[in-house]
Each structure stands twice: as C-alpha cells, then as structure tokens.
Amino acid sequence: MKTILILIFAILTASCSTQKLTTSKPQIYWVNSLKVSCTGVAPMKCLQVQKNETIKKGKWLNFYANIEGFKFETGYIYKLSVTEEKIDPAQVPADGSSIKYTLVEVLEKNQDPKFRIHDIWALEAINGETVEKPNENDRMQRPSIEVNLTEMKIMGNDGCNNFFGPVKTIEEEELTFGPLGATMKMCYDMEIPNKFNVAINKVSKYKIENLKLYFLDENGNELLRFRKVD
User: Fold this and answer.
1) Is the pLDDT of residue 3 over 60?
2) CA–CA gap between residue 49 and residue 45 (Å, rounded)
3) Taking the domains of the chain in order of start, what are their residue ranges?
4) Which run of H or E residues covers position 66?
5) Please, is 19 exposed, middle or buried when counting C-beta atoms within 10 Å of its C-beta (0-12, 13-18, 19+)?
6) Contacts of 55 (CB under 8 A, 6+ apart)
7) 196: DSSP letter
8) Gyration radius (Cα) of the chain, Å
9) What pLDDT sits at residue 19?
10) Angle at the Cα of 181 (from 173 to 141), degrees rounded to 5?
11) What is the CB neighbour count within 10 angstroms for residue 43?
12) Contact at 8 Å (CB) between 141 and 110?
C-alpha cells in the first residue's frame, strides 16, 4: 500500500512539474493591422506579430499559427495578452504548431493611421506642377490610383494606360511598390502618362494632409499629389 501511494504521489508531482514547464505566464503580443502572404505547407495569409512591451519599427514577424479566441479585424493594431502552451509532440499534426497560443485579453485595439491611404485618389500635380483636366476630345483620362491594403495592391490609370502591382512595404511614412505592370495602348499625347510613370517608380515615402495624398522620393521631395475621390 505504501508503494502504491508513493507511485501516485510521484505521478502527481510529475504532472504538476510538466504543467509548469509547458504553460507560460501571459506574454505581450502586438498584432499588425493587416495579414501578409506567406508560405507554410501551402501559400496562406499570416498575421504579423511582435513580442515586445512596445512596437519596434520594422520588427514584424510572420506568425504561422492561430491564437485561440482571437478574432482579427483588418485595419487595427492589437496589443494582446497571450499564453503559450507546449503540446505533446505525439499530438502535434504534421503541419501544425508545437505550441498552443491562447488569448487571455485584448489589451488595446487601435485603428492604424496608415489605413487612411486605403482609398481612391485623383491626381492633382506631378513634381509640383498642376495637371489640368484632359480635353474630352483627345480621349485622355485624369490619372488616378486605388490603394488596396487588404490585398496589398495598387492599381489605376496613368492618363492613358491602366497599371497594377503590389504594395511592397508600407509603414507610417514609408511606401514602396513592387514591379508595376501596365497595358500598352498609345495615346495622342503621352507627356503626362510618361511623367506619371517616371514619378511613381521613384516613390519611397508618403504623407496625407487635409484629404491630400503626397507621394515623395527618398529625400522627401514631392513627386505626385492626389486628392481623395468622394
């Protein structure tokens, strides 16, 4: 009987010890305002997270697992309290995480200011020079863009041709695009489309003031100025 009690005590002690080793105290997780394309076992959309007391610029990491109990909404930056629990390797699926993440509490949920760019914008100026409304007889259009952060894409018209491509990076002030594709139509006057395309390929920064969107080069010089389309 004494031997049996010793064995039971040993099993309970080991169980408690294992629990202490496998479950962490709550950790602070920051979750970025949009998901990004990533590749796990197959192409997918990943959260971007940081494990810091405060957000550090450029330190977002792709997060391939799920946080149980957390409902993500695009356009908001979250501060979460999350527990991490190690899973018995024998119970981990071939494509699964060895850690179970569980939401304890949403500490903060704030709208991300950069989502103000997520809209349709009509061109007003190139290199500081106002672009006049095209003459209806020459079949040209006023250049415009649509920035879609949900899909991390930009698309629009340069005055003659439609263009499209990925938003490569976007931070509070920084903005870069991937290679832009376009249709190949020739218009009567290509001066504005040509200037527009040269300018948009130099964009590395942006700012929004009074419903105006400014695309800037790496030195902060204005390349393109847009107004928000109602």
Assistant:
1) no
2) 13
3) 23-111, 115-228
4) none
5) exposed
6) 30, 77
7) H
8) 26
9) 40
10) 85
11) 8
12) no
C-alpha distances in angstroms, 191 versus 125, 126, 137, 158, 222?
Answer: 13, 11, 17, 10, 19
CB 76 within 8 A of CB 112: yes
Cα Dmax for the chain: 102
The single residue listed with the structure tokens 């290679």 is 179
Task: Answer positive or negative: Cα dihedral of 212, 216, 220, 222.
Answer: negative
* Residue 70, pLDDT above cutoff 60: yes
Question: Which H or E run contains 185?
Answer: none
Question: Into which CATH architecture does domain 115-228 fall?
Answer: Beta Barrel (2.40)
The torsion region of residue 108 among left (phi > 0), alpha (psi -120 to 50) and beta comes to beta
Distance between CA atoms of 14 and 160, rounded to whole angstroms? 72
Report whether 78 contacts 90 (CB < 8 A).
no
Contact 56, 64 (CB under 8 A): no
> H or E element: which one contains 135?
none
Q: In which residue are the tokens 């494990």 written?
A: 51
Least confident range of 47-56, 87-96, 97-106, 122-131: 87-96
Instruction: Give the pLDDT band of residue 11 (cuts 50, 70, 90).
Output: very low
Q: What is the DSSP letter of 1?
A: -
Question: What are 225's two structure tokens?
Answer: 């100025």
